[in-house]
Design a protein that fits this description.
alpha+beta; Alpha-Beta Plaits; 2 domains; four-stranded antiparallel sheet; GGDEF_dom; membrane; diguanylate cyclase activity; Diguanylate cyclase (GGDEF)-like protein; Diguanylate_Cyclase
Length: 324
């Protein structure tokens, strides 16, 4: 296989996307302070919120790399928008800021997993509701209803389409395993976590024995059924954090977070016992300085050794030691 870390696609928005979005919001808010919607507009608040958004934009690239970092950053920006909404003195300002909040919710639908996007949409609706009620303007229920419906409809539609496209890009149609690119990204995340926390991580490279013979003697549809049933069987014995990726015709990679070599060997033995079709496997465990390519290369070497030993009848050598 030999894939590079750089081949893994960005399935969700990067920190750069969020930083650019926050910076643009900051500039727009500065514009609102320089050219206020009314003579009584609290210009100081506009500049204060612009400073908050600019600070968030600057901090986004250097904040800790945790799953919650970017959603929380956007949530803080939404709270800043709520402060401005509550201080609007004109209907124009209220509408413009509401559109900004809707845009932030749409960014969440595009950028983040569905659960995070739903939470941020709920926060956006709460911010708009609070701002419209607290603003020193007459509250019009119809205006609130229209803005709320627009926010929910547009954000939900964008999230649905984005998630469908993301699923299509990350899931192998035949087997339901991850695609190569999605696997690389998941593996990179698990490797980063393992190296940061010192926990174990094992990778299993596997392929079907004599798969060409299956296709030639039983037909390609039968071969497809073998691959699909194999992934189904493997998945039944995996934990929630483990993942399977299809990286070639009959080649798969199984990522086993929290498992050392002995645990990975036990999983392989148990998974083999539950499959009618024989398959070979090579195991690699993560070291402190490994990249995803290092892991996959070693797993491939172990797989090829296992296949060679199967043909010769000798026991395959174990994977080379890794840095403790």
């Amino acid at each position: 296989m030999g894939p590079s870390d750089a081949l893994a696609p960005r399935l969700f928005a990067t920190r750069g996307h969020l930083a650019i979005g926050l910076a643009l919001m900051s500039l727009l808010v500065v514009g609102g302070g320089l050219w206020p919607f009314g003579p009584d507009a609290p210009v100081g608040r506009w500049f204060a919120v612009a400073g908050l958004l600019a600070a968030l934009a600057a901090l986004t690239p250097v904040l800790p790399r945790r799953p919650w970092t970017m959603p929380v950053t956007l949530a803080v920006g939404l709270l800043g928008a709520g402060v401005l909404l509550a201080s609007c003195v004109t209907a124009e300002g209220l509408v413009v800021l509401s559109l900004g909040v809707i845009t932030a919710a749409q960014l969440a639908a595009y950028a983040f997993p569905a659960r995070d996007a739903a939470l941020l949409l709920g926060l956006a609706l709460a911010v708009m509701t609070y701002g419209m009620v607290a603003a020193p303007l007459p509250f019009h229920a119809m205006t609130w209803a229209v803005v709320t419906i627009m926010a929910v409809a547009s954000t939900s539609l964008l999230g649905y389409v984005t998630n469908r496209l993301r699923q299509h890009a990350t899931t192998d149609d035949l087997t339901g395993a991850l695609t190569r690119g999605a696997l690389l990204q998941r593996l990179a995340g698990h490797l980063q976590d393992a190296q940061r926390t010192g926990t174990a991580l094992a990778v299993v490279s596997a392929d079907v024995d004599d798969f060409k013979t299956v296709n030639d003697t039983r037909g390609h549809l039968a071969g497809d059924e073998v691959l699909a049933s194999l992934v189904t069987s493997w998945r039944a014995s995996l934990g929630p954090r483990a993942c399977i990726g299809r990286v070639g015709g009959d080649e798969f990679v199984v990522v086993l977070p929290g498992r050392d070599r002995a645990a990975a060997e036990r999983w392989v033995a148990g998974a083999r016992a539950g499959c009618a079709q024989p398959w070979s496997a090579g195991i690699a465990v993560a070291g402190r300085t490994d990249t995803t390519r290092d892991l996959l290369d070693r797993a491939d070497v172990a797989l090829y050794a296992a296949k060679a030993s199967r043909r010769s009848g000798r026991r395959a050598p174990r994977d080379a030691p890794v840095t403790p």
